[in-house]
Amino acid sequence: MADSNTPAVSTGLESLDDVQATALQTLGSMLRSFVEHLPFMAGGILVILFTWGLASLINSFGARLLGHWHKRESVKDLIIRLVNIVIWVLGLLLAAIILFPGLTPAKALGGLGLVSIAVGLAFKDIFENFFAGILILWRFPFERGDYIECEGLVGEVEEVMVRMSYIRETNGELTVVPNSFLFKNPVTVLTSLPSRRVILMTGVAYDVDVKQAVDVITNALASCSTLTEDKPIQVFPKAFGDSSIDIELAWWTDSTPLGVRESRAEVVTAVKRALDENGIEIPFPYRTLTFKEPLPITQTTAA
Question: Of 200, 193, 199, whose CA–CA distance to 255 is shortest?
Fold first, then answer.
């Protein structure tokens, strides 16, 4: 019995020794490979650091270099961002080739293409906003500081990023808008010109001389300081209203929302004062009631 068990124990110990030897050999081989690969890792890290420094240099001095180029600021920002993207792609590609010596540029570009397809399918909305941001920066006629209106959103453009835009609404709230939203919907650029036309309706009583009322309103508009001087003032009788002759007032003023509100307030005040001073009535709504049958009139006497 003792003789039959001894070889089995010996075989088990030998197997355990073989496993330990194999594990130590594997760890030693991995350590040697790691030490041998350190120069490649250092080279890859140096390339990434160089790429980061070059991108930071482009960010710092790109605007200064393009300062004398007579293009919109959004176009200059787009060029700087695209140059940064190209620098980072080339830098990471070079670092990968240095880090993995068996990797060739053709294999790296092929792998990058497959990864791009997979990432594009997984992050469709992000890439849609990205390309919409590029098109907005390149083609759209609004800049940082312009006021725009899009689907009920009215505010000042604080910054147009590659993926989203920051819109400061007129009530002070900041709205982060995906660029695809601005690209797919109609956008009204309120400040594309220094001045904007404002239209206001008023009315005068039917017994008023309409020409006199038009002259009074025109003079009142001309006395307002918020109107743009080189733009015409237009006052036209427009329609026969229910209770008044409707008159349309049109003038030009500062195109910002605040400028329009201030000018509208000044015009309303000036027109009301001028009509009152000339005895011209702005009538309240009148209603005439007609009954099919005559109404009985009952006279009561005091007791």
Answer: 193
User: pLDDT by residue (tens digit) across 3-56?
Assistant: 555 555 455 556 776 766 777 777 777 777 766 667 777 777 888 888 888 878
Three-state SS for 196?
strand
Strand partners, 153: 150
DSSP strand pairing (188-189 vs 174-178): unpaired
Domain that includes residue 223, residue range: 195-277
Query: Residue 143, SS3?
Result: coil
Query: Is 82 in the same domain as 160?
Result: no
d(CA 48, CA 95): 7
SS3 213: helix
Distance CA 43, CA 94 (A): 10
Tokens 């959004």 belong to 74
CA distance 262 to 27: 78
For residues 181 and 208, membership in a common domain is answered with no
Cα–Cα distance between 76 and 302 in angstroms, integer? 90
C-alpha span between 244 and 203 (Å, rounded): 5
Q: Please, what is the Cα angle at 78 between 74 and 160, to 5 degrees?
A: 55
Has this prediction a pTM greater than 0.70?
no
Euclidean distance between CA atoms 219 and 221, whole angstroms:
5
Q: Is residue 112 part of a domain?
A: yes
SS3 label, residue 2: helix
- For residue 108, the model assigns a pLDDT of 59
DSSP reduced 3-state for 156: strand
Q: Are 38 and 56 in contact (CB under 8 A)?
A: no
